[in-house]
Amino acid sequence: MSGRNQVGETDQKFPSKEEKGLDLSVRSEAWKFLTGYYPWKSSYDERLTTDSMRRKSYESLCTMYSKIEPLLETEHRDFTEVQNVIQYQQGFHEMLLLFRLLVEEEHEIYWLFQFFLQKTENSCIINVGVQKNLVMLNALITFMDPTFAKHLDKCWGHD
Fold first, then answer.
1. Which of 66, 101, 114, 144 is deepest in the core (most CB within 10 A)?
2. pLDDT in tens, 129-150
3. Quick one: pLDDT at residue 2?
4. Does pTM surpass 0.70?
5. For 76, what's the count of Cα atoms within 13 Å in the CB-facing half-sphere?
6. What region holds the Rab-GAP TBC domain (predicted)?
7. With 80 as the cut, is the pLDDT of residue 51 above it?
8. Cα–Cα distance for residue pair 159/154, rounded to 1 Å
9. What's the pLDDT tens digit per position in 4-37?
10. Chain center to CA of 85
């Protein structure tokens, strides 16, 4: 039974971050499946091979990048001078931070974020991603809580 303390707050205990969701020991592996880093039906040996291949590919990209970095910096500076309307995409930094907290290997962070970007490619574009997300959300709410879905339809005038 939860009562009220002197300040009027309930004594109810809420789960900590560590108690929510998947167990900490499997979270990084779960994200690798959710983002497409690993195929859903892969064996342990296939995942080891995939991880090794991605590590080598990432190392090659880093080597190539170090060779062309000065050119890229010049191109970036020139591009931003011409294209000054580029906007920050909310949430990308947060997802990158999440992946950094989940896995320790730099190549895993890179590939998780790369697959995440592929899956969310059009999610911020009006009339493409946003509309698609709203349709999916509507279908989910209709399935999970038809009464609430009807209420939302009335609020928006969709009888």
1. 114
2. 667 777 777 887 887 778 888 8
3. 47
4. no
5. 6
6. 21-159
7. yes
8. 6
9. 555 555 555 655 655 667 788 888 898 899 888 9
10. 25
- The number of CA neighbours under 13 Å toward the Cβ of 126 is 0
Q: What is the number of other CB atoms lying within 10 angstroms of the CB of residue 19?
A: 9
Q: What is the total residue count of the chain?
A: 159
DSSP 37: S
Cα distance between residue 146 and residue 138, in whole Å: 10
Pure H helices in 36-91 = 44-82
- Assess contact for 135 and 123: CB atoms under 8 A: no
What the block records as the tokens of 24 is 């900490």
User: Which tokens in the block code for residue 42?
Assistant: 């892969």
- The 3-class SS string of 22-33 reads CCHHHHHHHHHH
Sign of torsion over alpha carbons 133, 137, 138, 143: positive
Residue 65 and residue 35: Cα distance in Å, rounded? 24
Closest-CA residue to 28 (of 119, 107, 103, 112): 103
Residue 32: exposed, middle, or buried by beta-carbon count in 10 A (0-12, 13-18, 19+)? buried
Distance of CA 8 to the CA centre of its chain: 38
What single letter denotes the amino acid at residue 34? L
